[in-house]
Write a structure and sequence with these properties.
2 copies of one chain form a homodimer. By secondary structure, chain A is α/β, with parallel strands linked by helices. Chain A has one domain: Divalent-metal-dependent TIM barrel enzymes (TIM Barrel, Alpha-Beta Barrel), CATH 3.20.20.150. A 9-stranded parallel β-sheet of chain A has the order 3-2-1-9-8-7-6-5-4. In chain A, helix 6 links the parallel strand 6 and strand 7. In chain A, helix 4 packs parallel to helix 5. Chain A is globular, with a radius of gyration of 18 Å. The model of chain A has no long low-confidence stretch (mean pLDDT 98). At the A-B interface, loops of A face loops of B.
Chain lengths: 283, 283
Amino acid sequence: MRNLKGKLDLCAINTATFGHREPLSCTIDRIARAGFGGVAPWRHEVEKANVAEIAKQIKALDLTVTGYCRSTYLPAATHAQFVANIDANKAALRDAATLGARCFVMVAGGLPEGSRDLSGARAQVRDGIAELLETARDCGVPLALEPLHPMYAADRAVLNTLAQALDICDALDPGRTGFLGVAVDVYHCWWDPALQASIASAGNAGRILAYHVCDWLRETRDLLLDRGMMGDGVVDLAAMRESVERAGYDGLVEVEIFSKENWWRRDPDEVLRICAERLQSVC
Amino acid sequence: MRNLKGKLDLCAINTATFGHREPLSCTIDRIARAGFGGVAPWRHEVEKANVAEIAKQIKALDLTVTGYCRSTYLPAATHAQFVANIDANKAALRDAATLGARCFVMVAGGLPEGSRDLSGARAQVRDGIAELLETARDCGVPLALEPLHPMYAADRAVLNTLAQALDICDALDPGRTGFLGVAVDVYHCWWDPALQASIASAGNAGRILAYHVCDWLRETRDLLLDRGMMGDGVVDLAAMRESVERAGYDGLVEVEIFSKENWWRRDPDEVLRICAERLQSVC
């Protein structure tokens, strides 16, 4: 396992970690100034700014874009809406290419409003990814399927385990072209009894495109916005990174913390300082 | 699939559905008066009362005890505590026998306070179940392992999928004695991509000991106490019961709703009336 001590260049910050309180360009400057090697920006931030200028700034600061967050949800109640979702993702993939992103983070989307058809929504996700794969190749930006914790199956992602994401990868990209893989986020998959097997299998196929860290708090008070800082929760982060790196992952370690009542209220530079400490001690 | 219309004798109520606001004997009377065929009481209610008298009341009302809720959590920080947990479960199994319960519902327990050793906690669960199996046989009460939703992995149950529970059953009870199986609760497992396969496999082995219904609300506001009434959420309950019955389950359909802000505030007889309606229309 790599030693992260003194190696913040191997670490990245997802901008959601600050709660989107300032313009993206300020956040990018902060992250670079603190010595991190990478950044993962969000579409609503990039789309509010000028993508070419953001790309130029990131390049000048020599930051890696570990991932571009994130896809428009795929499942839709109507075919027209499904097509619109695909088109929005194609446009985002072109921006991801401009940014030089290592991957486009795919959060599948939940059940269409009013639907109880889980397998239908899952089929739509698979169809949507199949349609996007060609654009991903054209843009030179791999699709990273991010299985979300099962508590988001209704409203955010019907893709809920690494095994499920890898089944889609194998079905749609049997040749392992490098343009379809997974994002492993400890928050979403730390509980999974099949996790070790899935990580090994993803690694063997060269499909681990991103690795996200934070922590699961024992007393989680909110389903979405109560993630913990690394070390404050129950996840054995060192063991997790060891698995991912043993499986061949050599990319950056990205911090992504949604925390409305705690980290999003703190000074961004303080958050960065603590992220740096924890990355070098408990991750 | 069985038709539940006019067949409330095939339906049971878990007493947690009322929020434990009145003595158990009143709740049992209400459930019987409303025409249900079964009840699933909780230990803290039974232990506050007299177990022999409760058993007598239930028998006089001709109610089936679909399950006795629930096990003392197994994983512990010390061996002495683990032994105490086993002993508490053995005592509860004897009460389950007195009540004539169809099964003893096993909620595994989460990580011991301060621990990040998920696989260690899972090993303790397996060891604990192995120790309890003999008592279960002696008492004539099967152990029903209830995998809990992954959002409870830290604090309530490190047993999180049916597949994981079935692996334990197969390892500890290869002879399929009838004393080790699973409780299938739609709230905990509706999202599972392997659900159909796991239900079929559980059914083939004769291991489905209980079937619990409620609903997953799209806008869930609390991790523990915001379950929905059947029909108010996203679960395809008819399809779910069809799978379970196709796999051979012929026991009662038990309603279990934790709902602090909604159903626990309503009049218990109103809750029972709506449970009856929904069981006969959407389940």
